[in-house]
Amino acid sequence: MLWHMDITFPAPKHKLIGHRGVAGLRPENTYCSFSYAAELDLNWIEFDVLLSKDEQWLVMHDDDITRTTNGHGLVREKTMKELTTLEAGLWFKPPYKDQKIPTLLGVLELAQKIHLFCNIEVKGAANDPQKCATLISQFLLQHQAIAANNIMLSSFSLTCLIAIRNLMPTVPIGYLIDEFTSSTIAITKQYNFNSINCDVKTMSLEWLTAATIAKIPVFLYTVNDPSVAKFWLENGVSGLFSDRPDLLL
Predict the structure, then answer these.
(1) Residue-wise DSSP of 29-73
(2) pLDDT tens string for the chain (249 positions)?
(3) How far apart are CA 94 and CA 121, in angstroms?
(4) C-alpha dihedral sign at 217, 160, 147, 220
(5) Is 136 helix (H, G, I), strand (E, B) or coil?
């Protein structure tokens, strides 16, 4: 188990987290990608959620569905019913048929069944961070039977994360950043965030050491190179997000 500020959550097995499921081996953010993470003996996955036109949470990275589905347009301009009829695996090589855009509820139900801890990245929060915080908090409270002790929330919107913390004092929160600054650790402590999730390309040993002294877990994204993984794991990072965890096992 890992802990920070009296909130505990399971440590990633092998210190690896499947990024968007296992995005290098299966179409990203699909049910088959999440299932394959479990087959690889991972116990953590990361995925992204966006709000539909009717304010339902769908699992999708891009605001525009064109890249990863057989549809076109923005997630926020389509209803959940419209979105969940689209194919989300045909773009991949090889293509995967019958992979509909997942709902957040569907993924949490699958994760509970196959014992996966979920790092949920809240996307689209920049325009209305309070609304996103309120709706994700309401959703998780409504479905706490399957969400409790099974999730961490993260977002690049600090305002959204602060609002989530105010609404949900005990949910694990990962402070998602592009790079460390002199205020990163202070912000993490001030708002009772539970990890720092940082881009590996901007990370330094100096910042990792500072976080370690402060007893804050650090997770780095996105690592697919075995030599890079070896370096950071040997230096004490808590976990690595990866599209190809099979290369790092």
Answers:
(1) TSHHHHHHHHHTT--EEEEEEEE-TTS-EEE-SSSBSTTTSS--S
(2) 776 667 889 999 999 999 999 999 999 999 999 999 999 999 999 999 999 999 999 999 999 999 999 999 999 999 999 999 999 999 999 999 999 999 999 999 999 999 999 999 999 999 999 999 999 999 999 999 999 899 999 999 999 999 999 999 999 999 999 999 999 999 999 999 999 999 999 999 999 999 999 999 999 999 999 999 999 999 999 999 999 999 999
(3) 27
(4) negative
(5) helix
Structure tokens given for 175:
């402070």
Residue-range domain boundaries for the chain: 2-247
Is beta strand 239-242 parallel, antiparallel or unpaired with respect to 218-221? parallel
Question: Does pTM top 0.85 for this prediction?
Answer: yes
Closest CA to 133 of 100, 166, 156: 166
Judge residue 6's burial from the number of C-beta atoms within 10 Å of its C-beta, 0-12 exposed, 13-18 middle, 19 or more buried.
Answer: exposed
CATH number of the domain located at residue range(s) 2-247 in this protein: 3.20.20.190
